[in-house]
Amino acid sequence: MLLASLVLLYAGLYNGFPLVTSDTGTYLNSALNFTVPDDRPITYGLFARAAALGFSLWFVVFFQCLILGGLLLRYIREFAPRVAHPAAQLALLTLGVWATGVSWFSSQLMPDIFTPIGLMTLALVLLGRSRSGLERAAWLALALLAGLMHTSNLLTFSLVVFGLGLGAWRGGWFSRGLLRRRDWQLATAVVLAGWLVLPTLHLAFGGGFTLSRASPAFLMARLNESGILERFLDRECATGHYALCAYRDKLPNDAVTFMWDGNSPLNLAGGWNATRAEYQHIIGKIARSPRYYPYLASETAQATLRQLTHVGLGDGLTPFRENTNPYWKVGEFRTYELKEYLSSMQNHNLLSFSSLNERVYLAYVLALLAGLLGLSSPAVRRWAGAPTALLLTVLGLGIGANALVTGALANVLDRLQARTAWLLPFVVLVLATEMLLTWWAARHAPAPEPVFTPE
Questions:
Q1: Per-residue pLDDT tens over the stretch 126-179
Q2: Model pTM score
Q3: What's the CA gap between 40 and 23, in Å, rounded?
Q4: Burial class of residue 36 (count of CB atoms within 10 Å of its CB; 0-12, 13-18, 19+)
């Protein structure tokens, strides 16, 4: 696990400091001051404060890599048992990290890596791959922690367990023993508990009993980008008394500008706290009006499909030097690490992802093709069996649900999908390795001795 964690920490070591994004400062601020951010949970900030051990931000990404490394090794041992030697397991893990670029997420001071961690732990529980009750409890606790890291995780995990439950009910998986009802019930209970635990946690830290105070602003930004908000205002501003009507001709083209530009309608009107009540009213009215349903359905479908193709690395990993929020908060968190932070390749704009993304996209496409060919091959289906199909179903649901949640409700961005998309090529690599080793062993097995019987 230690060696695996170092492999996963490669990107941070290469960079010279843990990677940061524009959101890192907000998470570090919540760690420093125990305050609940308006637009995201406090959970990752608490994790960062504990994992830093009062010494260094390096420990935060190290513990992320340690958790993920343990999970990846467990998947190799569970689904490729013929890869028995520890050195071979580490080599296969390293190949998977090289092909997928997951290190560029596990080395970030961001909660994004906990989305695939949660999906992997849920899959182990749902497939009944826990070797004891204590281990199953540990996987469920880790899944709950991952769900609390971001509200999008709670929604993604909920879609996975309910989607799987619907498939089990319609396909008779419970009655045929393909999926144990108790495992599904435990996973579902833990995911649903997160919807109560997170607002309770926020209430305990003075943030109120809420998942996110900025949710209406994010949803409004998405409605604006899709053009649905403009349709609504064109219809309602003649008779309604919405403050947003004053900015009808100044609506930006994309959700990012709507949320963060200083001259956007949101910020000109006083920000998400000042606009929350009106935005909630508009969102509710759109949700209750069937005339908008075709547009909502069309936008959801195309945003999800677009998000599934956005799996490139490097999104958001630009320099954040002096007078930026990450710079201020890294300095406030650990002043003596500022020199190392400023000396990193990221902050000298020396990171290039062109060749890496060629490899990542190739691995993603090959994994999709291998999955399709495997499903169409009777021999592969006989070898793989129901457990492998269920594993791919759970993780496939997770990747699709992440695309739906982030694409339809937030933004179509590489960072939001690439954080989970790497699971597909990694798992296909593990399964393909086991299949090839099984074929090799059968091909080179000694022929059985002939048996002679007296006539």
A1: 999 998 999 999 999 999 999 999 999 999 999 999 999 998 888 778 877 788
A2: 0.94
A3: 10
A4: buried
Cα separation, 184 vs 179, whole angstroms = 7
- Report helix, strand or coil for 445: coil
Residue 325, class by beta-carbon neighbours within 10 Å (0-12 exposed, 13-18 middle, 19+ buried)?
middle
Residue type at position 143 = A
Q: How far apart are CA 226 and CA 223, in angstroms?
A: 5
> Which CA distances in Å does 57 have to 114, 123, 332, 341?
17, 30, 12, 10
Residue 200's Cβ-count burial label (10 Å; 0-12, 13-18, 19+) is: exposed
Domain extents in the chain: 1-109+318-352, 215-288
The residues, any chain, with a CB within 8 Å of residue 201's CB and separated by 6 or more, are 41, 42, 43, 148
User: C-alpha angle 61/65/66, rounded to 5°?
Assistant: 115
The sign of the torsion formed by the CA atoms of 236, 242, 245, 251 equals negative
Contact of 71 with 117, CB cutoff 8 Å? yes
Closest listed residue to residue 119, CA positions, set 167, 68, 78? 68
